[in-house]
Design goal:
Largest sheet of chain A: 10 strands, antiparallel, barrel
Structural class of chain B: alpha+beta
Order of helices and strands of chain A: EHHEEHHEEHHEEHHHEEHHEHH
Radius of gyration of chain A: 23 Å
Strand content of chain B: 5-15%
Largest interface: A-B, 70 and 67 residues
Oligomer: heterodimer
Number of helices of chain B: 11
Radius of gyration of chain B: 31 Å
Shape of chain A: globular
Helix content of chain B: 55-70%
Number of strands of chain B: 10
Strand order of the largest sheet of chain A: 1-2-3-4-5-6-7-8-9-10
Structural class of chain A: alpha+beta
Strand content of chain A: 5-15%
Shape of chain B: elongated
Largest sheet of chain B: 4 strands, mixed
């Protein structure tokens, strides 16, 4: 990140919520969702999003989330009906082939609608975001480029990641102000190498130091000869564990480094910039320790874990205005009445189901 | 900024005393409180007024909508009760609620669809895996006779599905049989050649059990239901737990599959006995399989239980009678 020539003081992202307060919201949400067989979870989602958005501040002003529970519920009913229909019809050969072809078109379309909904329902300082990407670009980014990368045995995967990030960031506007992202490919390869270093490193350590038997085919043949061979069975379990230890952290490291790059090369309007200095290893530690604490408390520490993660990310994110911050806020506020209610109608729906 | 409320009008007045915007009290939309964040008051022209003077605002607009929810969410010893209620409710939904939803979904699945699944799967299998049966007509007629007898023992429930027997040669699959959700039951040539009539009746009874108890659809809906429920209830669980939950769901659905096998075993033996066959036939069949292929050491990564457990299961049943 080069120093800004006008040297405006950057505005920090700040999360003002607390784990205790969110625990109350979360547990009441959960109880009401359980008692209504999941129907209330749509309203619960809105309440959770509002809590996190309204508590995230930049330059003294907060974000906000505007979707209603009913909108989320309708979106979910459509998606669940679709998944059920797909699963049942998918059991019929030939029909599932036709459906697979249909999905190639449907998924990019739904993705764009979902991103648009998500953006239009989000605001900062009462100015809404918007998303204008088209589904053709989405299809290229999510189907064509990954396919092409596979042809190069994934050595060109960083190019796919960069292209996907371009699609996301360049499609967004804040009010009427455009956002844009472009960067050299170097940082993406650096992230990929770091992730690979972790993956290969853990596998080497596991085989050499801990002594996990990496000879999978030998192990399996041993098992089929002598199914009572407990040692071989333990080896199979160790391989599964190794997958968790190698693959999941590698993904976390890659995403953290990509996040930094995307923020550091994103420009809002004429020259407003962002800065992110998330540490991949720190984020990895937070993710792993969160998972352990949550698992050991039957999930009850989930709100604490979530707040901890969000606070860390906010604390390592800056907004760097091109001119005086007050000018920026003033400019943005002037756009409110122009676009305030333009997005009142349902212009898309949310398809986000976690897990 | 000040918010002023009259009988027919609400004004937003700035520090200089200038009126910024106004509307009728009905047009004003005041959002419910979320945590300790500022409360949001929306004017119809898009103007947003934020305030942390919660008590004053509630008094002013004489509206406490959503304050019950906010009150219930406050960090307070009462939340311990809510937490306990949640743990009980999670257990209840997992144990009974999900089964109820799954049963409802199975019941709502239209019959023509299930029949179409059978036809489609058979078509695909015939193209990729199976060879036409090489059994003699006499053998086929004998098996068909056993099948009809076992099916007849089912009574009026036999009308619920379109039960049909199919013969196929499945090289490499050994003595085997499987059922499709619509009632198509396939037996391999090797099964017919190698096992006794009584064992065959037990196997057919087992497969009919899968169809009667709708195990196929139940498994599809159950893993789907667990996936959706966890997704909606737990929300964002973070990158590590997300993977753990996904794998856990898979291992759990395998455990349901093994439970279904045991249930079908019991059903099959019962049905074969009613039809007048030796109820030990299925048990003999497991002995044959165990001698030939050996038993697995650990079963938690398998769709079928160990033969030892299946024998145990059948024994417990005969002792019960």
């Amino acid at each position: 990140m080069q120093a800004d020539h006008r040297q405006e003081p950057p505005a920090e992202f700040e999360f003002r919520g607390s784990a205790a307060e969110y625990f109350g919201i979360w547990i009441v949400n959960l109880l009401l969702s359980l008692l209504t067989f999941g129907i209330y979870s749509a309203w619960a989602k809105v309440r959770t999003k509002k809590y996190f958005y309204q508590n995230t501040f930049v330059a003294g002003r907060s974000f906000d989330y505007h979707a209603t529970g009913l909108q989320i519920l309708i979106g979910r009913i459509i998606v669940i009906a679709g998944i059920v229909a797909y699963t049942i019809l998918g059991a019929i050969p030939l029909v599932n082939l036709a459906m697979l072809l249909g999905l190639v078109f449907l998924i990019p379309y739904l993705l764009v609608r979902s991103l648009r909904f998500q953006a239009r329902m989000s605001s900062w300082s009462n100015v809404r975001f918007d998303f204008q990407g088209n589904w053709g670009t989405a299809a290229a980014n999510y189907f064509l480029y990954p396919f092409l990368a596979a042809l190069t045995i994934y050595t060109t995967w960083p190019f796919v990641t960069r292209s996907v990030q371009r699609f996301h960031v360049n499609g967004h506007t804040f009010g009427t102000t455009k956002m844009s992202f472009d960067s050299p490919i170097g940082p993406f390869y650096k992230a990929a190498l770091a992730a690979m270093a972790w993956g290969i490193g853990t596998i080497v350590i596991a085989t050499v130091v801990v002594g996990v038997n990496a000879n999978i085919s030998g192990m399996l043949s041993e098992l089929s000869h002598d199914p009572e061979d407990i040692a071989a069975m333990i080896d199979v379990i160790m391989i599964l564990l190794l997958f968790f230890v190698a693959a999941i952290p590698a993904t976390i490291i890659y995403r953290a480094m990509v996040r930094n790059t995307v923020y550091n090369y994103t420009i809002l309007g004429d020259g407003h910039r962002f800065y992110s200095d998330v540490s991949a290893l720190r984020l990895l530690w937070i993710s792993v320790s969160n998972a352990v604490v949550v698992a050991m408390t039957l999930g009850l520490m989930l709100p604490w874990a979530h707040v901890r993660r969000v606070r860390y990310l906010a604390d390592h994110t800056l907004f760097i205005p091109a001119g005086p911050l007050d000018d920026f806020v003033g400019d943005i506020s002037a756009q409110v009445s122009a676009i305030g209610d333009a997005y009142g109608d349902i212009e898309g729906f949310d398809i986000g189901i976690a897990v | 900024m000040r918010l002023a409320v009259g009988t027919n009008t609400v004004w937003l007045i700035d520090d200089q005393g200038q009126i910024q915007t106004r509307c009728t009290p009905e047009e004003l939309s005041v959002e419910p409180r979320v945590g300790s964040t500022e409360r949001r008051v929306n004017f119809p022209d898009g103007t947003l007024f934020l305030t942390d003077q919660h008590a004053a605002l509630e008094h002013l607009i004489a509206d406490s909508s959503g304050s019950h929810l906010h009150h219930a969410e406050r960090f307070h010893p009462r939340l311990i009760v809510v937490t306990l209620a949640c743990l009980v409710a999670v257990w209840g939904v997992w144990k009974y609620g999900l089964s109820l939803l799954v049963a409802l979904a199975v019941w709502m699945t239209p019959l023509p669809l299930v029949t179409a699944i059978d036809a489609g799967v058979m078509q695909a299998l015939d193209q990729i895996m199976t060879e036409p049966s090489a059994l003699s007509d006499r053998d086929k007629a004998m098996v068909q006779d056993s099948f009809d007898r076992v099916l007849a023992a089912l009574g009026p429930a036999a009308e619920d599905h379109d039960y049909t027997l199919e013969f196929r040669d499945l090289p490499g699959m050994g003595p085997n049989a499987f059922a499709l959700p619509g009632g198509t039951i396939v037996v391999t040539d090797e099964l017919v050649r190698r096992v006794s009539t009584d064992a065959l009746a037990g196997v057919i009874g087992h497969e009919i059990g899968h169809v009667v108890e709708q195990h196929g659809l139940t498994q599809i809906y159950r893993s789907l239901g667990a996936f959706v429920l966890i997704g909606m209830m737990a929300g964002d669980t973070g990158p590590v737990l997300e993977q753990v939950l996904l794998e856990g769901n898979l291992i759990l659905s395998l455990s349901y599959s093994r439970q279904h096998e045991l249930a079908a075993d019991q059903f099959g033996v019962d049905l074969a006995r009613k039809a007048g066959f030796d109820p030990n036939g299925l048990s003999d069949f497991f002995d044959l399989l165990e001698q030939e292929f050996g038993d697995q050491e650990m079963d938690w990564l398998s769709t079928h239980p160990r033969f030892e457990d299946r024998q145990e299961n059948l024994k417990s049943m005969t002792q019960g009678h």
